[in-house]
Amino acid sequence: MKLHYSLSIALIILSLDLATKYWVESTMVYGQQIPVTGFFNLVLTYNPGAAFSFLSEASGWQRWLLSAIAAGASIVIIYLLIKYKTEKLFCLSLSFILGGAIGNLWDRITLGHVVDFLDFYVGDYHWPAFNIADSAIFVGAALLIIESFSSKENAQTDSDSKVERNEKIEKL
């Protein structure tokens, strides 16, 4: 996949993420819940930590650590997009992850926390609130898993560069 296609996908995801966060913050107040269905609410919440509120109770240092990790991961992803541009599913998965990582990085740097607003639940159990960036990272990771299985299947029939690439990535 050409680099500009990969970056365009990441930019679309980033734009959707930032636009939805802007909309939620401009129409809701912190903690407000808007029931949508019997299993889904919109709820404005802030997460200064990582996924599932990991490190959210820390004193503020996590903002810069998590920002550095996201920035570093974004640089590695761009490198991988350039190096493995012929592997479409791999590049598509990385594009989703890149768009999501930059969306949450933007929040973390500009706001000091990530804006979350999607609240799925069953009965009284609520899954941790998340956003479009988190969803894109999840979809990208799922596609990456699918791609890794397909590369192993292809490697059994012909000597494919995907296996070599996966081994190099594991060494990073």
Automatic annotation (TrEMBL):
Annotated metabolic or biological route of this protein: Protein modification; lipoprotein biosynthesis (signal peptide cleavage)
Tell me yes or no: is Acyltransferase among this UniProt entry's keywords: no
Query: What EC class does the entry list?
Result: hydrolase
What is the active site of this protein? 116, 134
* Regions that span the bilayer: 61-82, 89-106, 126-146
GO annotation terms (biological process): proteolysis
Q: What UniProt keywords apply to this chain's record, in alphabetical order?
A: Aspartyl protease, Cell membrane, Hydrolase, Membrane, Protease, Transmembrane, Transmembrane helix
Q: Where in the cell is it found?
A: Cell membrane
Alphabetical list of Pfam families matching this protein: Peptidase_A8 (PF01252)
Q: Where is it mostly found?
A: membrane
Q: Catalyzes what?
A: Release of signal peptides from bacterial membrane prolipoproteins. Hydrolyzes -Xaa-Yaa-Zaa-|-(S,diacylglyceryl)Cys-, in which Xaa is hydrophobic (preferably Leu), and Yaa (Ala or Ser) and Zaa (Gly or Ala) have small, neutral side chains
**GO molecular function terms noted in the UniProt entry:** aspartic-type endopeptidase activity
The enzyme's E.C. designation: 3.4.23.36
Query: Membrane topology per the record?
Result: Multi-pass membrane protein
Please tell me whether the keyword NADP is annotated for this protein. Answer: no
GO CC annotations, alphabetized: plasma membrane
Membership in a protein family: Belongs to the peptidase A8 family.
What HAMAP family does UniProt report for this protein, alphabetically?
LspA (MF_00161)
NCBIfam families attached here?
lspA (TIGR00077)
PANTHER family named in the record: LIPOPROTEIN SIGNAL PEPTIDASE
What is the documented function of this protein?
A: This protein specifically catalyzes the removal of signal peptides from prolipoproteins.
Question: How is this protein named in the record?
Answer: Lipoprotein signal peptidase
Q: Which gene encodes it?
A: lspA
